[in-house]
Amino acid sequence: MVAVGGVVGASVRWLTGEVIDDRILTLLLVNTIGTGILGAVTHGILHGNSTRNLLLGVGFCGGLTTFSTFAVEVAVRLDDGKVIDGLGVTLFSVVLGLLAFLAGVMTSRWAT
User: Which of 64, 82, 93, 95 could form a disulfide with 77 if both were Cys (CB 3.0 to 4.6 A apart)?
Assistant: First the structure.
């Protein structure tokens, strides 16, 4: 289930990058969506079904989101002397991720 979810998540991530011709926007979008889904999954909207948790939480969200790309994007900006850009990417990523995670948790509470 993890592998199946990972293939789908990675494919969605790649397709998103093909449709949106902006690396940072793609990064923010997929990471925000992934953390929102993960918030819902970890809170227990799928509680009691470990197969779906593995498929969506570990597999899909793991394939969709990426810390390594985030780290590279920030490092490149810092290396180029674009400190404000690097800090901006970091701030937006963290804030959007936390908001999306909380929205996922709240959605799962509302749904259960």
Answer: 82
Say whether pTM exceeds 0.90: no
Mean pLDDT by 10 residues, the chain (112 residues): 96 97 95 94 73 90 94 96 96 96 89 71
Per DSSP, the chain holds a count of helices (H) and strands (E) of 6, 0
Beta strands in 10-108, from DSSP E residues, in sequence order: none
14: Cα within 13 Å, side-chain hemisphere: 7
| Both structure tokens of 99 | 């908001």
